[in-house]
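Quick one: CheY-P-specific phosphatase CheC from Caldicellulosiruptor diazotrophicus, structure tokens please.
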Amino acid sequence: MNLSNSEINEMYLDVLKELGNIGTGNAVSALAMMIGRKINMKVPVVKMVKLQEVPEILGGAEIPVVGILLNVEGDIEGFIMFVMSQASAHLLVNMLMGTTLNGYNEFTDIEKSALMEIGNILAGAYLTALSTLTGFKMIQSVPQLAEDMAGAILSFPAIQFGETGDTALYIETEIFEESSRIVADFFLIPTIESYKKMLKALGVA
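--- reply ---
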């Protein structure tokens, strides 16, 4: 059976949406256990984007953001990047530590560790979902935290982890707890070869 490009793209998008749903379910369970309270998450956006589109998605290259970066090795190679506004990052820390927001001061070492641990948990949740769908084994590195402008955050992992592809899996994740709403942008940026392997494993290449 021959499929058109639009049909292939639609199939791939359906698989990506399933990845987002499975990953979010994993992340909700892990974060709720870590925080010790019920939280809600949803995935309003799942799509493939070009790397040059990422700064605009984040609000512009000059927007100050907090990035959590992880290298990915194994059957799929590349890197994962979680990016939040500074306000969302502070809200997330307060949610985790049970503290009250008191301005947007610099993060303490404990708060930075908390953010990196959250990034570790979320990365694991989405990699587990991807592994479930593809059968690939993937290992994530220790997370790194960066506070910078969106354009600089994007360039850092490309230099750190070497050559990557020009395409990213983008999952916008919303986290809710009572009146708090946090938006975290998730990007999986595989190498060109890994991207081809993913397409083949998902049955759309």
